[in-house]
Design a protein that fits this description.
The structure is a homodimer. Helices cover about 40% and strands about 20% of the residues of chain A. Chain A is of the alpha/beta class. Chain A has two domains: about 240 residues, Aldehyde Dehydrogenase, Chain A, domain 1, CATH 3.40.605.10; about 140 residues, Aldehyde Dehydrogenase, Chain A, domain 2 (3-Layer(aba) Sandwich). In chain A, helix 3 packs antiparallel against helix 6, helix 4 runs antiparallel to helix 8 and helix 6 runs parallel beside helix 7. Chains A, B: Its main location: cytoplasm.
Chain lengths: ~425, ~425
């Protein structure tokens, strides 16, 4: 396979054109059936998949890559079973296509219908975890789009076999195999080419760390949905139930600190700072959280480090938390709208007035009252799937489920109407 | 004013930051009232506006600019009255904000509400017509966003006075004047800077010719809605009512040939080519339309020029039409999906099966059955306004009314829910 790759350079434009042709057949095809065939194929070919993955892991280990990163790359029987189960779940979700979104009749009798349709060709640019290869492909397929995948170079062997298994399965349900394709080259110029392929790709979704996302957004000439970065805040108001507040803050910070909807900064109203901070910060320290804070925080709870401007701006993605005492809701809103990434923000309060103001004035995809920021997630939202979490305002905000990766068209039916 | 501009270079980042601050107040402000004040101010200051516009027109005439282009630039009493009337109409439209889009309750009791909210800061990059300055500003304001305007250099004097009038009017309704700002410089580097201002501008909408649109889409690192290009087709099927078909084709081509929803290519089923083409092409010729066609068209109707590949690709925006005889609906769909710009496409047919297939398989924002493509328009659709027509699939397709220039957020209310 390596030889084939070397002797025939990868043809991205051709790949995208084949994806376009394949995409035409998908809206009316048996997409559910195809996903069930894919789940079967992944399990049937488990030996081949795990062998390829073991090669990827071994090559990466030889480079001295840390265990945590190796773990992200690794597949095993259990994980593969989990991937196949997830594919079957997506097959069982309601079809996001052919939905009637709106309709009305113009004064001249022309009937307008607005219906959901596929994007066409979706590009995915992502890192490491080979499960994303399958996740992204089946979500795109279920939403009626062909998908062109570009995973990371260190997962290329795994991705080749996963994509081969999916492609083999598609014709068994009558779908064209070119509905799923891999950019089978580690050369980064194909990412640039994909991001410039206006007219050939309808949407690119990046998924990975901040530098990947930034590269895609800065480079792309095709439509992109920016995902991922979450510098999320929790504000504990003067009227908050402090016992519940402690539990929510702990959950938002430590339940899974490496994800985008975890909290990175705690804001506490000055009226409860002396009561609340010692207990919550002690609890956080016991959970292994490194703390930095403003002067007022440090005065109340010695041992907290000095928070710099960089701390307010940082998505730690780990067991670190910045803490600030604030004097008013205005100060809170200003802080969040200045440093936040418009992902998930929470107020813990007993005041319905403050809750409303916070939800109104804070600019974010998901604004919580008395709940953990960790609920911004396609599965928690009940979407049954998630291809990422949007942090831009164009098209979709927050969790991207199946409905969010479709678009619409207007169908207009008349009897010879002309414009006057 | 010229001196001030020269001595203090224009500060785009500062402009965008002031726009952001102003935007925070808009969702709950008296936006209707502000629009009515703007309409008044435009008429109160008509002498000043028309004088500035006369200077722009004189400067342009001195360059030898053709009359048609001068006309696009020119304002007079009647046009200014029309602009003010349009502003009042927008003030009377339903508020696109605070709309309840969806709501549900999660199994843990968390209530999710999805509501429409403003984008925040919208940038507009456009050409010539000074009426766009007012149109774009009031649509953005009505949709709760601050707007930063970049018109063409040759309309800068007009735009300065129009923007000054709007800014003066805003505080009279309690709105911050920085909700409307002008990029008061002809220097193109400010366009590049605007298109790169991630985090400072939430959306840029280009409006103008293909080269402007392409420049914006290729350059932008911020979210953009691509608008405008319309290579639209009309297909006359074997079962079409040929009398109505003739009227629709004529309307789609000649009623206003310079706009994006006018037809550029006529496709005719071979079964009716010999009957239909001589009459419709004669009618079109009498209306001043220059015709090019495929060999079969030219065999039926002598005098038609040779259509080249370039003709199928061209949006003429004038009294020109490409004509092609086709053998099947498959050929029609292939032609349109290959050459079309996903704007507006029409089938004229007596077959409901062919109508459905055409609407299903043709990839465009608006797909018509038995009606002119000219109806793809915010006013015709009943949106009451239009800031452009989207030809991309991300966010909104087709006419962009007030609802299409809003986004949404999720509001989640709980009682201390944490994630398990």
């Amino acid at each position: 396979m390596q030889n084939v790759t070397l002797s025939r350079p990868f043809d991205l434009a051709g790949t995208l054109r084949r994806a376009r042709t394949a995409s035409r057949a998908l809206a009316r095809a048996d997409r559910d059936g195809a996903l069930l065939r894919i789940a079967d194929a992944l399990l049937e070919r488990r030996a081949e998949i795990l062998a390829a993955n073991a090669e990827d892991v071994a090559a990466e280990r030889a480079k001295g890559t840390p265990d945590a990163l190796l773990d992200r790359l690794t597949l095993d029987e259990l994980r593969l079973q989990g991937i196949a189960d997830a594919v079957r779940q997506v097959a069982g979700l309601p079809d996001p296509l052919h939905r009637h979104l709106d309709s009305w009749t113009l004064p001249n009798g022309l009937v307008v219908r607005k219906v959901s349709v596929p994007f066409g060709v979706i590009g995915m640019v992502y890192e490491s975890r080979p499960n994303v290869t399958v996740d992204a492909a089946v979500l795109a397929l279920r939403a009626g789009s062909a998908v062109v995948l570009r995973g990371s170079a260190n997962a290329l062997r795994s991705n080749r076999v996963l994509v081969a298994a999916m492609r083999d399965a598609l014709p068994r349900a009558g779908l064209p195999e070119d509905a799923v394709q891999l950019i089978d080259s580690p050369d980064r110029r194909f990412v640039t080419e994909l991001l410039s392929a206006r007219g050939l790709v309808d949407l690119v979704i990046p998924r990975g760390g901040a530098s990947l996302i930034n590269h895609v957004v800065e480079t792309a000439k095709v439509p992109v949905i920016e995902t991922g970065t979450g510098n999320c805040h929790i504000f504990v108001d003067a009227s908050a139930d402090l016992e519940r507040a402690e539990a929510v803050v702990l959950n938002a910070k430590v339940q899974r600190p490496g994800v985008c909807n975890a909290a990175e900064t705690l804001l506490v109203h000055e009226a409860v700072a002396e009561t609340f901070l010692p207990r919550v910060l002690t609890t956080l320290e016991r959970a292994g959280v490194r703390l930095v804070g403003c002067e007022r925080t440090r005065a109340v709870h010695p041992g907290v480090g000095v928070a710099t401007e960089a701390d307010w701006e940082t998505e730690y993605l780990g067991l670190e938390l910045a803490v600030r005492v604030v004097a008013s809701l205005d100060e809170v809103v200003d802080h969040i709208n200045r440093y936040g990434t418009q992902h998930s923000e929470a107020i813990l309060t007993g005041s319905s007035e403050n809750a409303s103001r916070f939800q109104d004035e804070v600019d974010a995809a998901a604004v919580f009252v008395n709940a953990s920021t960790r609920f911004t997630d396609g599965f928690e939202f009940g979407f049954g799937a998630e291809i990422g979490i949007s942090t831009q305002k164009l098209h979709a905000r927050g969790p991207l489920g199946l409905a969010e990766i479709t678009t619409y068209k207007y169908l207009l039916n008349g009897q010879g109407q002309v414009r006057r």
